[in-house]
Amino acid sequence: MSHTAEIIAVGTEILLGNIANTDAQMLSQSLSTLGVNVFWHTVVGDNPQRLREALDIARHRADIILTTGGLGPTYDDLTKQTICAAFGQKLVLHEDILEDIRAFYQSALHVPMPENNTQQAELPEGCTVFDNPVGTAPGCAFEADGVHVLMLPGPPHECETMLRRCVEPYLRALSKEVIVSHDIMTFGMGESSVDQLLHDRMVRMVNPTLATYAKPCEVRLRATAKAAGAEEAEAMLAPVVAEVRAALGDYVYGVDVKGLEAVCFQLLKERNLTLSTAESCTGGRVAERITALPGVSSVYRGGVVSYWTSVKAAVLGVPQETLDQYGAVSEETARAMAEGARQITGADIAVSVTGVAGPDRDERDNPVGLVYIGLATPEGTFCRRTDSGRRRRDRIQELAANHALDVVRRYLTGLPIG
Amino acid sequence: MSHTAEIIAVGTEILLGNIANTDAQMLSQSLSTLGVNVFWHTVVGDNPQRLREALDIARHRADIILTTGGLGPTYDDLTKQTICAAFGQKLVLHEDILEDIRAFYQSALHVPMPENNTQQAELPEGCTVFDNPVGTAPGCAFEADGVHVLMLPGPPHECETMLRRCVEPYLRALSKEVIVSHDIMTFGMGESSVDQLLHDRMVRMVNPTLATYAKPCEVRLRATAKAAGAEEAEAMLAPVVAEVRAALGDYVYGVDVKGLEAVCFQLLKERNLTLSTAESCTGGRVAERITALPGVSSVYRGGVVSYWTSVKAAVLGVPQETLDQYGAVSEETARAMAEGARQITGADIAVSVTGVAGPDRDERDNPVGLVYIGLATPEGTFCRRTDSGRRRRDRIQELAANHALDVVRRYLTGLPIG
């Protein structure tokens, strides 16, 4: 049987427009994958009466209600009390959770737990507790009157952690079917090109399904199959993944991988090589993405953010003649930056980025969006020129960082740099 | 009289989690500023029955209903028909709008208008038309049974254009009040501590109001006043802002500013100083946040991501004895990194970060979360030691970057580094 869900967010900050309701997006993606139909999103403020009314509407049209927000220690966090009143549940103090919260304060925050945090340890009697390893407010779930009610914290990283660890297993147990999906990650092709190549195939598919999700600078294809068991679902998915790979070729950089940087990390480890970076217009974004990966210090040595031309010369050793003759945004400078970074850090390979992130053209009248990527290797130095034509600074910087990582990936897998 | 609004988004893509409901965020921000209370957001799919039910709920609790989405020419765009049925309005073809749409196709898209676009020119009889200069679907508004119903297109740039040109003037004409708010930004104090200091004050306040919003590593306080005019609202807010500043002292780093990096940028410009960075555990995050700001090359020279100890020595010139004796994560190394970055880049001041981002303790058994910030200046070198006790790598890195920027801010404003 198929379940029907409503997601209720509790938070005045959403109604004031301070934040978007990204928790609802994240939960919706997950529930869709699990085969749960999400038919409504509702947002109410930190107001018990309006929350109560929303619950009374939701319980009559959905058999799964997920709430986000309102579990914190401050006076306006009233989700639990209101839900328990609506569903006739008794709120009781869970001593073990209180101990966990006290311990978190002592060990992680090095201060005694403020007394107003005590209410975070109060949960409905007999509920399933969702522990919160990244915050102090636990979540929970209970069933009453044929409705499953799940309460999650509002801060997105806490909500997501609890979703993966607790909510997905809880919901999976409600269903007889399994849903398996694979994400096929691509870089270098626009969404409409991907769509044109695969459109006819996608619209014909029912189970498995294939859908595209465009992030600002990447296209992800998600293949999803529903079956009685995981093995059966996998067998249904294998030909779909193979077909997409065949259609998109080496634009596909991985399946179920976290991003280009994760692929580069894996390839560097396998080949026992180290990397360094030299960034101008990306201002540290390549380094930042790489160093977000735990354990990456085995392959990443470091880099230079040579924002000023003088830093390109003094720290990276780009020859002053190169800078004078070709300018900071040029193939020659990109090559010299990569070679300089490789030399001063002693890494096996080094990647560089120099370009015009805007908002204005540079002093040589290079257009906003023009970017050069250099790659210095034991086999010589390579360069990619790219001009996205984009105008938004943050998009140009993100796309340029993707290009840099893509150049590294292609070199390490023996593909043309392009 | 104060108006009460509900925003209803029509779009299956939101319920599937393909996109976040950013239209609702944008509209909410605008309506709050106009003094309209947004008490509900609702999302339904492209389903006439569920939209009808949502409208029937909304018309009994709100006197302004804004809908987004479902105005396009495809088969699932049913917003207008459903709304007109619910409110007893007659949908009529507006010949002038049809001409506009035909002209838009000819001049902007260089193709004849497809015939299924004709229905975009059908609008409720006697409605206020909201024209759409950036798309083909016009919006509209009408009043029925004491409820104002406004229909806007879903694509965010069309929705925003119509909001500014048509919706804001329409709503302004309905209201006598303005709402003004100020965001007081703090760093260094947890949400519970801020809450404890200001709790009694916050719960007593009605107009103006004061509320806290915690981001992962910062706390923002928003003071909001409602009045007949902007000047009056500002006069009501001034003592609240002053009181918060008095209570939180130099934890307040600005009012209505975008972040610590924006404050540092402004201070550096005012003092005509340049900055550089030397980052280990933050891996480029400080540089990345600074270089996200347009025009920042006037004050930011660049930096080094010295992830390996050998890069600290070879590029930043940290003495090998310092590294051997005290280790990479130490006050001495933090100081030497900052001094090295200042020297090789020629910047007036340089900030450094070295710490243990985890997941494991470092080889000297320093705990995860221990971070040293160094600051090299013409007046000497300073250091801050901080141990957040946090365990999540990304939070440790983000918090460490905030500490680095906070040290720069404090130095530039003559405050103790702490």
Write structural notes for this entry.
The structure is a homodimer of 418-residue chains. With 418 residues, chain A is α/β, with parallel strands linked by helices. Chain A has 3 domains: 4-172, Molybdenum Cofactor Biosythetic Enzyme, Chain A, CATH 3.40.980.10; 178-255, Alpha-Beta Plaits, CATH 3.30.70; 260-412, CinA-like (Maf protein), CATH 3.90.950. Chain A is 40% helix and 25% strand. Chain A contains 14 helices and 17 strands. The first copy, chain A, has helices spanning 12-15, 22-33, 48-58, 79-86, 95-109, 156-172, 191-204, 230-248, 260-271, 285-291, 309-314, 320-326, 331-345, 393-412, and strands at 4-10, 37-44, 64-68, 91-93, 122-124, 128-130, 139-144, 147-152, 178-186, 209-215, 218-227, 252-255, 275-279, 300-305, 349-355, 370-377, 380-387. In chain A, the strands form 4 sheets. A 6-stranded mixed sheet of chain A has the order 2-1-3-8-7-6, with helices on both faces. In chain A, strands 14-13-15-16-17 form a 5-stranded mixed sheet, with helices on both faces. In chain A, strands 10-11-9-12 form a 4-stranded antiparallel sheet. In chain A, a hairpin with a 2-residue loop joins strand 7 and strand 8 (147-152). The longest helix of chain A has 20 residues, at 393-412. Chain A is globular, with a radius of gyration of 26 Å. The first copy, chain A, starts with a strand and ends in a 6-residue tail after the last helix. The mean pLDDT of chain A is 92. At the A-B interface, helix 1, helix 2, strand 2, helix 3 and helix 5 of A face helix 2, strand 2, helix 3, helix 7 and strand 10 of B.
